[in-house]
């Protein structure tokens, strides 16, 4: 029994000594931490390395003599002014010089040589005006006394000199201001726009790899633009620095509208993205987004017009191999089996042509010209080009222009269709979705 009590007393003593030692060690560790935190050996983050080295090379000023009387502070009209009775006064916080940005040097449009070559227009203005008046008067007298043919020659020579003179080229700064603004990939009308606030500015080199992971939600594309330090919005690119982002998910296309499942996926993936960027998205309410998407899809369904004109053979069917070779020589671009497109001068599709034949067929007696109306702008006159091509094929191949019901299309019917196409273009223009525009190309896809 005595051995057990002795063992317990020894164990208790060891435990008490361990607790006291641990507390002492924690106090010593905390004291060292505080001393390091308030020591003067830390570098000043506001000073450059050169200033820090210079400060380290300077000798410390003598310690303040605490026996001497302290400086007295007198309150002035706007601030405190010290009346020191020492020779040395420590600068206060309000004595620190204000840090002001240094403006970058601005390069003039003309260098000194160009400036010296210019005609004087200030100090010599009176003399120049007098010389100009005298020259004008002499020219008028000479023209009055000269024959009419000579006057015509002089005028013609002056016009030739004006035409041969080089055109004025504005400086690069002016060209940047006069250049048309590029369309942004995020559209306020057809996209669900989600602002993203960033905690710190981020470079485009860091953003682009992360943004590549969110390019589609379902079959709807997702785009991003960034706000620069100057406050302008642009597509996120390498070398740029952006203070905020704006995500845009397309609300609808020909297939369907953005639905609840797709929007939920967008929100979830966007939150993962913004967490990695230390950003915060401002998400719109789901019912409002879905309602807008459905209305936009209804507009697409109402204006999804594809116009067709057919060329029917008046005799024997045409051989496909010979026909396709001839159409290729006429400018058609073969895309798939039995499907060709006609492009304009800028590489955009005007209309398509279908042979209405399968891979097993060797002949066809009908060609169909197709115009995707909302994807072709009125300026390109896709309908006019389609009708002209149909008439040319009918004349060359011995065929007739017919509609889908195999009824002939006279000139009067083609003119009526042209008026309907013009009215369709006006309706799309009034909806701020012009045919052939970037908006229309994205929606009708």
Number of helices: 13
Average per-residue pLDDT, rounded, comes to 76
Percentage of helical residues?
A: 40-55%
Extended strand count: 16
**Poorly predicted runs of 5 or more residues:** 33-49, 58-128, 176-180
N→C terminal distance: 94 Å
Instruction: Profile the largest sheet.
Output: 6 strands, antiparallel
Structural class, from secondary structure content? alpha+beta
* Element pattern in H and E: HHEEHHHHEHEEEEHEHEEHEEEEEHEHH
Radius of gyration: 41 Å
Q: Can you tell me the overall shape?
A: elongated
Mind explaining what this structure looks like?
This protein is an alpha+beta fold and 445 residues long. 43% of the residues lie in helices and 19% in strands. The protein contains 13 helices and 16 strands. The protein has helices spanning 2-37, 49-57, 112-117, 125-145, 148-164, 172-178, 204-211, 260-277, 286-302, 320-329, 382-397, 411-430, 438-443, and strands at 72-75, 80-83, 191-203, 216-217, 220-227, 233-235, 241-250, 279-281, 306-313, 318-319, 332-336, 339-343, 349-354, 363-364, 366-372, 399-402. Strands 3, 4, 5, 6, 7 and 8 form a six-stranded antiparallel β-sheet that branches. The longest helix is centred in the first third of the chain and has 36 residues, at 2-37. It is elongated. The protein starts with a helix and ends with a helix. Residues 33-49, 58-128 and 176-180 have low confidence and may be disordered.
